[in-house]
Automatic annotation (TrEMBL):
Residue ranges, annotated region (Disordered): 632-666, 800-863
Biased composition (Acidic residues): 848-858
Gene3D superfamilies xrefs: 3.30.60.90
Listed name of the protein: ZZ-type domain-containing protein
């Protein structure tokens, strides 16, 4: 580095390349953990850059050489591509490091190829630099080149075959985890292909991975949810793993969207690094031989270190006590000593005595603080024994209990230029705690404003904001803040005028401004810990954790405010969650270090955590305890600090302020709901004529597709409108994701086409490639579908595949059909995976299908093609030249196998009924269709929330059966309705019902106030079904009874509002009780005097009816005290108004009572409790008997109708 810096000063034209190189290398060196393969790749870059040091041998770089070009001109032409290669290398390394271990292992071949490509570029650049230098150099350069070669013999030899180098690197530099995975795969007969196809083995693979530093479960044991783009082993599922393995390297690089901002921030930081040593007076340290103290830069520390005779390090407590003595007592002691000397020598008669006195006074003055001034007198009061703990923490960065000379110099060098050392020490002994308390209230103010802004957000943004509030990272912030001690002591502080705080505020605000500037540089996205180092600098996280939390939450507030007018992208707030997660990683590492030190020193960890950093680490990763923090209302804290204006932008390197003021735009920009993109429905013509040209595909086709590990999304329908003599086909159709167009080619019996959706999905265009085999009679097509940006192909058994060299890439099999592929890339032929289809079996299946179609009409829709190997695919498809109504009406294959004639009649009857029903309307038909739509919407919403697992078998079976009977046009509309509702659903994520264990609770959550007052997380919660059934619940030592007061939530709430809500609830119940008593008293008086007029008492705010006794609800949100009757609240629950809202309702206090308001129950004295087990059993038996009777009656009616229809068909055919 130093050699390149000197070279850059001598030859400025290479300085930009040196800066880029230092930024790329520093980015990797600052990473917490480095993969050895990445280090090896960076060594090839270093080897290339070292070649530039040969420029030292060139006397005149501007002297023209062969061809009239100077060496400077030649290198300038080459430096552009060198810079691009360095940036490319940094991005490749950064993207590779982020891959989970399992993904790295399964995709090692792909990454080996990419590493080889980058390393080859560096080898080429090195050879080019050497060539440019050699043709301009004298004999001396040859000698220097030989020397350089001798210094890196191994690399020089291996660069002759970079591919071999990377092969050796990826083979020998595997991590222990990768070696374990390799051993696991080696046990399977099919190798990687077999493992990727086996869910159980993949679960075992993921189980072997390290869980990571963060908490992988929330306080209730629920698995943490990964945010979009998060690929951590701790949250990776089998589906996620397959999806990540399936990605091409170029796609992974393209997905690393924020790297460029991160790299630029690193480059700016490297360019701005200047070693500034503060020389007090004109003292120059000429040598270090006089003692360790000579390396101390600050003069005060220098004197203390020298007087105490310390060596290279000292106990932190001893240093702090010495500094206290130096400042707090030194000046006063010096004055007292001088007074004694002057009193003794006051006669002044003896010149020798006077001279001795002057020498003694000079010696005392030299040991006293030469910079002591009246302006610093205030600081001395804070350098006391009672305040030394924060100063010890600031000096002892590594928590070793010892302070080294380097740490001492770093401490003094960090102080603001205009501050004296006493001022700096006073900041850490007193001002730092003030700063923490100030940020505590500002963070709570942001929480309060986010809560208020959420009320006015568009309904379409409800789930996005709710997911953010319920995320474990946001909950971690609350846990973290709950440990802060002595909060109440600072409640009376006026943060705008407090004299002491104003002495530190400028420095605090300046630090926040720098952090904000750095975060804007990376678009508020901390993708890993080295990005956190770029933004916040190195050192202990206590210095930046509070301002970082505040800035990230303030950015979240801006996004929530934007949600008032625009529809947010589903991942808009996920970036903030991810940045907070990276911050928790840094805190986790710090806490683990502290615990290790406490254990080593045999100290009580819990007690030490209460002392360290003002107690903020006490519950950072421990179960929070009920305390005053949870009872404080954030709205009260919000009133203690002023508004939250954005910090002014920091000046850029050229001295100007950033051109863009205020907040940055949204990460993903506004989006449009799927339901708003629906175009006028256009249905394919199922009666299109069968083509007369042999093997022509023109006509109507329908069928289905499936994923490799689950059922598909329903039936598909499209029409091939053109098929020319060259085999090109063009068509259009629709499926669950909307209308699409197809274009492709038919080569013999091989069909390849691209399916391109006309409507964007998640804001991006989506395309898929289909490859299949057309049956001999051109009546059916079977094959595979997959991404367009991976070059996979279909190979039929019985055919000789083309001979190819090189190894196949590792493969994966599943990616969600909703994941768009933005880039089209082509992999080398050597890496094209093969998708095999058994031709004989396929032909046999085709014969069966044809037989069924021609003779009895049995459907093969959705039948999987056998004989597959794992590749870059997503599933199978089947198409038949039949109208989609045929597939909808066709009974399952099991019915054909059981009773073929009856199944054929059922097919004909179903088709006839559908034709008749399509021309008539009846309430029964509309009701059945509505029920089918509701069933589809509910199942799709469950499917969207997460992959179905073993416990969801019934849902999966119900889904598979349901989608077979829905027209593709309906599928698309209903899917849009489901997504519309999903955005508006009130989902209390991470909360489960304590009675039935349902999770998550949706849409209404009931929290028992009586059973939850002493809990932070373990509240007693019920779902609407269990609350309505008046269920008793016993958990641990708590017993919930239906007569308890219950809080009703229909919106997501921050946990810090729970206990303040309880307090308001108690007040409202007291008010309602007083109103009832007053009403009863007035009624008695009115009855006596005969006057029944008046409307005083308790009335339902919705229906205005009088409430004379419990049960009823009290509203905790309405501006005026109000009550709600049970009937009106139940009606709101049934109508589910929140699922259909397009705009916002009136904010709190400005409109009438609505569904979202929080309520507290006043239950009646006698509540019907839940049935006993025997009563339940008897009731269930009676219900089963009634259902069986109804089914028997329905079967008789159905048989009669079938017989009548058969007679009708016979009569029609007889004509």
């Amino acid at each position: 580095m130093n050699a390149l810096d000197e070279l850059g000063k001598a030859h400025p034209f290479i300085q930009i390349a040196v800066s880029i190189f230092k930024a790329g290398l520093t980015l990797e060196l600052t990473r917490r953990e480095n993969d050895e393969k990445v280090i090896a790749l960076n060594l090839t870059m270093c080897d290339m850059m070292q070649t530039l040091t040969l420029l030292k041998q060139v006397v005149n770089v501007k002297e023209p050489g062969p061809g009239g070009l100077s060496i400077e001109d030649r290198l300038k032409q080459r430096l552009g591509s060198i810079i691009d290669s360095i940036k490319r290398c940094a991005k490749v390394c950064d993207s590779y490091q982020k891959r989970p271990t399992a993904v790295k292992f399964f995709t090692s071949t792909k990454w080996q190829g990419k590493f080889t490509q980058v390393a080859q570029q560096f080898a080429d650049h090195k050879a080019g630099i050497q060539f440019d230098l050699q043709i301009h150099a004298s004999v001396g350069i040859t000698t220097a080149n030989v020397t350089l070669t001798a210094m890196s013999t191994s690399f020089t030899e291996l660069n002759e075959n970079v591919s071999k180098l990377m092969e050796v690197v990826f083979e020998r530099m595997r991590t222990p985890e990768e070696r374990d995975l390799s051993a696991l795969v080696a046990k399977e007969a099919g190798g990687i292909d077999a493992v990727l196809k086996n869910d159980k083995l993949l679960e075992e693979v993921l189980a072997k991975q390290k869980a990571g530093p963060r908490k992988d479960k929330d306080e209730r044991g629920a698995k943490k949810r990964a945010v979009p783009g998060q690929t951590l082993d701790a949250v990776l599922t089998v589906t996620d793993l397959r999806m990540e393995v399936n990605k091409d390297v170029e796609q992974v690089l393209a997905d690393n969207k924020f790297f460029d901002q991160k790299f630029e921030a690193m480059k700016m930081q490297v360019d701005e690094v200047k070693v500034e040593i503060r020389h007090e007076s004109d003292r120059v340290i000429d040598t270090i031989l006089a003692g360790p103290h000579e390396r101390i830069v600050d003069r005060d520390l220098y004197h203390v270190w020298k007087e105490m005779g310390w060596k290279g390090s000292v106990k932190a407590k001893h240093l702090v006590m010495a500094l206290r003595d130096h400042f707090a007592e030194g000046s006063h002691a010096a004055l007292a000593a001088i007074r004694v000397i002057t009193q003794q020598k006051k006669d002044g008669s003896d010149p020798a005595a006077a001279a001795q006195a002057m020498e003694e006074i000079a010696d005392i003055a030299s040991r006293a603080d030469p910079h002591a001034s009246p302006e610093d007198e205030w600081a001395l009061q804070f350098i006391t024994v009672l305040r030394i703990q924060p100063l010890i923490e600031a000096l002892d960065d590594d928590v070793s209990s010892f302070v080294t000379i380097a740490e001492a110099n770093a401490f003094t060098a960090a102080r603001p230029q205009k501050w004296s050392l006493p001022h700096w020490i006073a900041y850490w002994t007193y001002g730092f705690e003030m700063t923490v308390q100030w940020y505590f209230r500002r963070i709570r103010k942001v929480i309060s404003e986010i809560t208020q802004a959420t009320v006015e957000a568009l309904p379409a943004n409800r789930k996005i904001i709710g997911d953010f509030i319920s995320s474990w990272t946001v909950r971690w912030i609350e846990d973290f803040l709950s440990g802060l001690r002595d909060v109440e002591q600072w409640d009376s502080t006026d943060w705008e005028s407090d004299v002491m705080f104003l002495k530190f505020k400028d420095y605090v605000v300046e630090n926040e401004r720098k952090l904000e500037h750095n975060l804007r540089g990376v678009k508020y996205y901390l993708d890993e810990t080295n990005t956190l180092s770029i933004v916040a600098g190195s050192g202990r996280p206590e210095k930046y954790v509070m301002p970082l939390i505040f800035i990230l939450l303030r950015r979240s507030l801006y996004i929530v405010q934007q949600a008032h007018t625009v529809t947010l992208h589903m991942g808009e707030l996920a970036v903030i969650q991810y940045s907070l997660m990276i911050l928790t990683d840094a805190i986790w590492d710090r806490v683990q270090t502290l615990k290790a030190v406490h254990k080593l020193q045999n100290l009580d960890d819990k007690e030490q955590m209460k002392k360290f950093f003002f107690g903020l680490y006490s519950f950072a990763f421990e179960e929070p305890e009920i305390s005053d923090y949870w009872k404080r209302d954030p709205d009260d804290d919000a009133n203690m600090v002023n508004d939250l204006p954005s910090i002014p932008p920091a000046p850029t390197s050229d001295g100007d302020s950033e051109s863009q003021q205020g907040d940055l735009p949204l990460f993903h920009g506004p989006t449009t709901e799927d339901i708003d993109l629906i175009v006028d429905p256009t249905f394919d013509d199922p009666t299109s004529p069968h083509p007369t040209v042999a093997h022509s595909l023109v006509g109507h086709w329908s069928g289905s597709y499936a994923y490799d590990d689950r059922d598909g999304d329903g039936l598909v329908s499209f029409t091939v409108s053109s098929h020319d003599v060259n085999g090109a086909i063009v068509g259009s159709g629709t499926d669950a994701f909307g209308p699409y167009v197809v274009h492709g080619t038919l080569d013999d019996n091989r069909l390849t086409f691209v399916k391109e959706y006309l409507l964007p999905q998640y804001g991006q265009k989506v395309m898929w490639r289909y490859e299949g085999v057309v049956s001999p009679d051109s009546d059916s097509i079977r094959g595979q579908w997959g991404p367009t940006d991976v070059d996979w192909k279909l190979v039929v058994y019985g055919e000789e595949p083309e001979q190819e060299t090189g190894a196949k890439e590792e493969a994966s099999s599943d990616v969600s059909a909703q994941q768009p592929k933005a880039e089209e890339t082509t992999t080398p032929a050597a890496e094209v995976p093969e998708i095999r289809v058994d031709e004989a079996e396929d032909a046999h299946s085709g014969e069966d299908a044809n037989e069924d179609h021609d003779d009895d009409g049995a459907s093969d829709a959705g039948t999987a093609v056998s004989g597959m190997t794992v590749g870059y695919i997503h599933g199978t498809f089947f198409l038949t030249r039949r109208p989609v109504e045929y597939l909808i009406s066709c009974p399952p294959d099991e019915e054909f196998a059981a009773n073929r004639p009856r199944a054929l009649w059922k097919l004909a009857l179903n088709a006839t009924l559908r034709a008749v029903q399509s021309r008539t309307l009846s309430w029964g038909l509309l009701s059945a269709r509505r029920k089918q739509r509701q069933q589809y919407v509910e199942l799709l919403k469950r499917r969207q929330r997460g992959p179905w697992r073993g416990q969801d078998v019934e849902d999966a079976q119900e889904w598979a059966q349901l989608i077979k009977g829905i027209h593709p046009g309906d599928l698309h509309l209903w899917r849009c309705i489901a997504l519309y509702q999903l955005r508006r659903d009130v989902i209390h994520d991470t909360i489960y019902c304590d009675a039935c264990r349902k999770s998550p609770i949706t849409p209404t959550r009931f929290t028992c106030m009586n059973c939850s007052e002493d809990a932070v997380d373990n509240s007693m919660d019920l779902c609407i079904q269990c609350f309505s059934a008046n269920r008793h619940v016993t958990r641990d030592k708590k017993v919930h009874h239906p007569t308890h007061n219950v809080i009703q939530y229909r919106t997501m709430k921050w946990r810090v509002y729970r206990h303040p809500t309880f307090s308001v609830g108690r007040d409202m119940l007291k008010w309602a009780e007083d109103q009832l008593q007053l009403s009863q008293a007035r009624s008695a008086v009115q009855t006596t005097v005969g006057d029944t007029a008046g409307s005083s008492g308790l009335h339902c705010v919705v229906c205005k009816t009088s409430i004379t006794a419990p049960p009823y609800w009290c509203c905790l949100t309405c501006n005026e005290d109000s009550a709600v009757c049970y009937a009106c609240n139940e009606r709101m629950e049934r109508e589910k108004e929140w699922l259909y809202l397009r705009g916002t309702f009136a904010p709190n206090g400005t409109g009438p009572h609505n569904w979202s308001h929080t309520l507290i129950s006043a239950p009646g004295p006698e509540v019907i409790t839940a049935e006993t087990d025997q009563e339940k059993a008897g009731t269930i038996e009676e219900r089963i008997a009634r259902v069986e009777a109804k089914l028997d009656a329905s079967n008789l009616k159905l048989d009669a109708r079938l017989a009548a229809l058969e007679d009708l068909l016979r009569a029609v055919l007889a004509r």
